[in-house]
Design brief:
D-amino Acid Aminotransferase, Chain A, domain 2; 6-stranded antiparallel beta sheet; D-amino Acid Aminotransferase, Chain A, domain 1; 29% helix; alpha+beta; 286 residues; 9-stranded mixed beta sheet; binds pyridoxal-5'-phosphate
């Protein structure tokens, strides 16, 4: 079955899905994105992703290509056309294709923003990695200073994944001033003496949609949550650790820079939060 992709108003087979070489996403990484998970053919936390997209667009003075209601319809149409039961929908908005390459933003009245969405079919709920746990390395955080905006400039996170791969590991946690900011494509957490610790929200990290939901569920379950920066040394000495993201939900981390956490197996807090997150998200899926 050929994948059907949405490009600027049209649903086309993937080999016919094209954007201009002058698209500012291609030339300047002048674009933002969202990834929304799909379970049993339904979208998880669409409202959260739509809200963050609106914020990313507004921080960059970029026009929304369609309304958020229309965006939901496009997501649903892609699920139907691709018969998607489980996986993700990737969405990207760029500042469109100007007539030439120019650093200055084009007039949005003359150059409309560009919108592309595609599906990624994948088994995400029943994950072998969730049973085994991830091994991570730490690397210096060399990204720009507005990590709260979900832009498509993902070169450094890609390099981080390659550094992790070269070290025989699964991911990298990024460090700034000895403190962990986040994973290459996820938010980072440690658990110490039953307390869940994760970095507070600021421009230094992406405000994860999964993070917001998981912290809400943790508090509802009477778990203690502390939102503050933690050092990499504190992380290596933690009882357990985990990451969150839309496509991995809650995923345990069992090793940091070669040091095993606790008994080196996925911890009970991460396992419980993963279960709660999946149960609760399924209930509100659209
Ligand atoms: N932090 C970074 C740098 C990310 O790229 C992502 C997801 O792509 C996240 C955190 C997790 O965000 P969310 O839970 O909204 O997927």
């Amino acid at each position: 079955m050929t994948r059907i992709v949405y490009v600027n108003g049209d649903y086309v087979p993937e080999d016919q899905a094209k954007v201009s070489v002058f698209d500012r996403g291609f030339l300047f990484a002048d674009g933002v994105y969202e990834v929304t998970s799909v379970l049993e053919g339904k979208l998880l936390d669409f409202a959260g992703h739509a809200r963050r997209l609106e914020r990313s667009l507004s921080e960059l003075d970029m026009a929304a290509p369609v309304s958020m209601e229309a965006l939901l319809d496009i997501h649903r149409e892609l699920i139907v056309r691709n018969d998607l039961t489980e996986g993700m929908i990737y969405l990207q908005v760029t500042r469109g294709a100007d007539a030439d390459r120019d650093f200055a933003f084009p007039d949005p009245e003359k150059v409309p923003s560009s919108l592309v969405l595609f599906t990624q079919a994948k088994s995400i709920a029943d994950s072998p990695a969730a049973k085994k746990g991830l091994r991570v390395i730490s690397i210096e955080d060399q990204r720009w200073a507005r990590r709260d905006i979900k832009t498509v400039q993902l070169l450094y996170p890609s390099m981080g994944k390659m550094m992790a791969k070269a070290a025989g590991c699964d991911d990298a946690w990024m460090i700034e001033d000895c403190h962990v900011t986040e994973g290459t494509s996820n938010n980072a957490y440690i658990v110490k003496d039953g307390k869940i610790i994760t970095r507070h929200l600021s421009n230094e990290i992406l405000h994860g949609i999964t993070r917001a939901a998981v912290l809400r569920f943790a508090k509802e379950a009477q778990m203690v949550v502390e939102e503050r920066a933690f050092t990499i040394d504190e992380a290596k000495d933690a009882d357990e650790a985990f990451i969150t993201s839309a496509s991995t939900f809650v995923m345990p981390v069992v090793e940091i820079d070669g040091a095993a956490l606790g008994d080196g197996k996925p911890g009970p807090v991460a396992a419980r939060l993963r279960e709660i997150y999946l149960d609760e998200s399924r209930k509100t899926a659209l």
